[in-house]
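Supplementary Methods, section 5.1.

A reviewer requested that the exact input to the structure prediction be made available. We therefore reproduce it here, unchanged from the version used in the analyses.
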Amino acid sequence: MSARFQELDWRPTPLGELVLRRRRDPLDGKDIYEIKLGGEFLMSSLFTVAEEELSRLALAELTGPDLDVVVGGLGLGYTALTVLDDANVRSLVVIDALGEVIEWHQRGLIPAGETLGADPRCSLVRGDFFALMRSPEGLDGGRLFHAVVVDIDHSPRHLLHPDNADFYELPGLHRIAAHLHPGGVFALWSNDPPDADFTALLEQAFVDVRAEVVSFANPLQDREATNTVYLGKTPA
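The structure derived from this sequence is encoded token-by-token as follows.
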């Protein structure tokens, strides 16, 4: 790649222009992959710590083999890759509303796609995660999961689409719990600091609720940045 920035693909979507680009880091020469939607960054491979910790923290709450996990939101694939790193995981269903992002993985435009496509435990599903949560059939035909891991909206208050809002209200949280085995884990990524009001809502639907602050270096701003991972469990 001779140019510092290379647009790998561009697609119009109902949510806005979707762009996959690759750029070279001038400091270490590594390629950085970025996805933008409607002018906002969805994900950058420069910052993956919180996405990986989202999966690690969720799976750390579980014991035993043959774990079934669903991830809402594919992005650059780091959350899904971290789930598959756990040998106790039997199956992983990754749901994303943007078929273009799934296609990028399948075409190898995103590096994680090769690993995700080669792992027989993993299936990539195009669908509206929130709509599936509302449907009587639920996720994947109504079967239960040991963990539901979500990385879609920027935070419970900063949404990609206003229709997602009910997911973060008490009835929506009860619907999540209904998709989990007893002792199952719900994990949610947020770009914002811990929200006391949202944590209080979680405590009405789950037990062992907590908000974990994940810190990581931000070389673009020469400072430490933070994200939040919310965790809750269904009663065992």
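The chain has one domain: 47-233. These observations are discussed further in the main text.
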